[in-house]
Specification:
It is a single chain. By secondary structure, this protein is α+β, with helices and mostly antiparallel strands. 42% of the residues lie in helices and 26% in strands. It has helices spanning 4-16, 35-40, 51-56, 66-73, 83-88, 115-137, 157-163, 167-173, 184-192, 244-297, 302-328, 341-352, 378-395, 451-461, and strands spanning 21-24, 30-33, 77-78, 93-101, 104-113, 142-147, 152-155, 202-211, 217-229, 232-242, 334-340, 360-366, 373-376, 399-409, 414-421, 465-470, 476-483, 490-493. A 5-stranded antiparallel β-sheet has the order 2-1-5-4-3. Strands 7-6-10-9-8 form a 5-stranded antiparallel β-sheet. Strand 8 (202-211) and strand 9 (217-229) form a beta hairpin. Helix 12 (341-352) packs across helix 13 (378-395) and helix 13 runs antiparallel to helix 14. The longest helix has 54 residues, at 244-297. 22% of the residues are buried.
Length: 494
C-alpha cells in the first residue's frame, strides 16, 4: 500500500501534467479530472457531467471513442490519428485503459497526447514510406513482394515490363506461384529456408526461369528474402533482373571467340598446306609424266597397262588434293566483281541438277525477288555452292529434298543463303569440327577433309560468315551471310 506522501506526489504529478487526464464511469460520467483538464473545461466543477458534453458539446459519445472500446473489450485502446485530424486539429489523440474492481470495469482512465508531436512523427513515417515507395517503383530491376498466402502486395513498373502484367492486375489478381513455372515458387521458398544460398531467409544471384503473362518463359537473376515479424514469416520479396540480353551477348561473345580461334587455326594451317602442296606438286607431275611415257614407249601387257593407269589415276588424285591445298592456302589472287547471288546459285544448280546423283532429289528454290549483289570472286563463290550442294546430295544418297533460299537482311546489310537437305543430319559431336581442315566423315579415299575448310576460308576471305546446324525436323542446314555490294566495280586481293 502507498503511504500518504506517495499518494500526494502522484496527485501532484497528475495535476501538474499539461495534458488532459480524466476518469469516467461506464456511463461516461466524469469521476475525476486533473487541474489542466478542469481549466480547459472552464474551471468549474465538472464531476458527474458527461465527458462528451463537457469537452465536445455533444449529446452522445464521440465516434471511435477509446473509452467505449475499453468498456467493450476490457483492453487498452489508442485513437487512430489521420491526416484530417492533423489538418483540422479537431481533437487530441487519446489513450484509454480500464480500472478493474475484481472482474468488473470500475472506471476508464483517458489521457491525451501532443497532437503536434504525433503529427511530426506521422509526417516522418509518411516521408519514409514515400521514399521507400519511390525507391521500389524506380528500381531498374523488377520488385515483387507477396504475403505468405501468395498474394502479391508489391509490384513495380520494372516487374510489369518483365512479366507482361499491369501493376493493377498483379496487385488484384496475381498469385506469386503464377510468376514461376513448374512449381518454381515452392523451390525458391525451400531455398530461402535453407542456409545454402546466402544464409537463412536469403537467396543471392540465383538464375531461374520466370513465366510471363503470355506464357513465354524468360531467364532472370533472382535476389530474394523472407520478411520476418519477430520469428514469424509474414512475406517474401524478390528482385528480378532480366538476363535475356545478357545471355544473348554472352552467346555472341562465345561465338565470336570460336570464329577468331577458327580463323587463327585456318591461317596457320594455310601456311602449312602451302608448303606441303609445293613440295608434292613436282614429284606428282613427274610420276604422271613418266607413267604416260611408259604407255607410249613400251609395248606392255594388258595387266601392266592397267597397273600404269592406276598409277596415273592415283597421281592425278594426288594432284587434285594439292590443288585444293593451294586454294585452301589462298595462293591464288582473288578477282572480285559484282556478282548476283541468285544467278550464281542458279548457275551452279544448272550444272548439277541434270547429273545422275540428282535425278531422285526434289529441288525447291525460293529466291529473293530482286538481285542480290555482292563483291566476290565468281569462281570461288561457285566452288562454295557446288561443294555444299554436292555434300547434301551425297548425304541424302541421291534421294530426298533440297531447299535453297536466298534473302536480304536489310538491318545488317547482308545477303543470306540457306541450303538445307532432308538427309540424316550432322552428328552433334561433329558440328564443332565440320569446318576444320582434314576433318571428314567420308570413307578413306573418298574425301580429303578440305572441302568445307576451303568453303569456310572463301566465305571468310569475302568478309562473310557460314554456319552449319541440324534442322528440328531432320537434315542439315548451311547458312551463309555475305556483305551487300551496291556499286559495280572490280578489285583484286592477294
Amino acid at each position: 500500500m502507498r503511504n500518504e506522501q506517495e499518494k500526494e506526489l502522484l496527485i501532484s504529478a497528475i495535476d501538474g501534467a499539461q495534458r488532459k487526464f480524466f476518469i469516467i464511469s461506464s456511463d461516461y460520467e466524469l469521476l475525476a479530472v486533473n487541474d489542466y483538464t478542469r481549466q480547459l473545461a472552464g474551471g468549474g466543477d465538472v464531476k458527474g457531467r458527461h465527458c462528451y458534453e463537457v469537452f465536445y458539446d455533444r449529446q452522445s459519445p464521440c465516434e471511435d471513442c477509446t473509452a467505449a472500446r475499453v468498456m467493450s473489450t476490457g483492453k487498452q485502446a489508442l485513437a487512430s490519428v489521420g491526416k484530417e485530424m492533423l489538418e483540422t486539429n479537431i481533437a487530441s489523440c487519446f489513450y484509454s485503459y480500464p480500472v478493474f474492481n475484481g472482474d468488473d470495469i470500475e472506471a476508464v482512465v483517458t489521457i491525451d497526447f501532443d497532437l503536434d508531436a504525433v503529427g511530426e512523427m506521422l509526417g516522418r513515417i509518411d516521408r519514409s514510406n514515400a521514399f521507400l515507395r519511390n525507391l521500389i517503383l524506380s528500381s531498374v530491376d523488377g520488385v515483387i513482394a507477396a504475403d505468405m498466402t501468395g498474394k502479391v502486395i508489391v509490384f513495380n513498373e520494372a516487374a510489369a515490363e518483365i512479366s507482361g502484367y499491369s501493376i493493377e492486375e498483379a496487385l488484384n489478381h496475381l498469385d506469386i506461384r503464377d510468376v514461376y513455372p513448374d512449381g518454381g515458387a515452392r523451390e525458391v521458398m525451400k531455398m530461402l529456408r535453407s542456409e545454402e544460398y546466402g544464409g537463412k531467409g536469403k537467396v543471392k544471384s540465383y538464375e531461374v526461369q520466370t513465366k510471363r503473362k503470355d506464357g513465354n518463359v524468360m531467364p532472370i537473376r533472382l535476389n530474394a528474402a523472407i520478411v520476418y515479424e519477430g520469428d514469424k514469416e509474414i512475406a517474401s520479396i524478390g528482385f528480378f533482373h532480366d538476363m535475356t540480353e545478357e545471355l544473348k551477348m554472352k552467346a555472341n561473345l562465345e561465338k565470336t571467340q570460336t570464329q577468331l580461334l577458327q580463323a587463327e587455326k585456318m591461317s596457320s594451317l594455310g601456311k602449312l598446306a602451302a608448303g606441303v602442296a609445293h613440295q608434292l606438286n613436282n614429284p606428282l607431275g613427274g610420276i604422271t609424266l613418266y607413267a604416260k611415257l611408259l604407255l607410249e614407249d613400251y609395248d606392255l601387257s594388258e595387266e601392266a597397262v592397267e597397273d600404269v593407269n592406276r598409277i596415273i589415276r592415283d597421281a592425278q588424285r594426288g594432284s587434285e588434293t594439292v590443288k585444293e591445298l593451294l586454294e585452301f592456302a589462298r595462293q591464288t589472287r582473288l578477282k572480285r566483281v559484282q556478282v548476283d547471288v541468285n544467278q550464281a546459285v542458279s548457275r551452279t544448280l544448272f550444272l548439277l541438277e541434270n547429273q545422275t546423283l540428282f535425278h531422285d532429289i526434289e529441288i525447291k528454290k525460293d529466291f529473293y525477288e530482286k538481285s542480290l549483289f555482292i563483291s566476290a570472286d565468281i569462281q570461288q563463290l561457285n566452288h562454295v555452292f557446288m561443294n555444299i550442294i554436292l555434300n547434301a546430295a551425297q548425304a541424302m544418297e541421291g534421294k530426298g529434298r533440297l531447299e535453297i533460299e536466298t534473302g536480304l537482311d536489310v538491318s545488317r546489310n547482308l545477303v543470306k543463303v540457306r541450303i538445307a537437305d532432308s538427309g540424316p543430319g550432322i552428328p552433334d559431336d561433329i558440328i564443332p569440327h565440320i569446318f576444320e581442315p582434314f576433318y571428314t566423315t567420308k570413307e578413306e579415299g573418298k574425301g580429303t577433309g578440305l572441302g568445307l575448310s576451303l568453303v569456310y576460308s572463301i566465305i571468310d576471305e569475302h568478309g562473310g560468315h557460314i554456319s552449319a546446324n541440324n534442322q528440328p525436323g531432320g537434315g542439315a542446314v548451311f547458312k551463309i551471310e555475305l556483305p551487300v555490294q551496291s556499286e559495280k566495280g572490280e578489285e583484286e586481293s592477294g
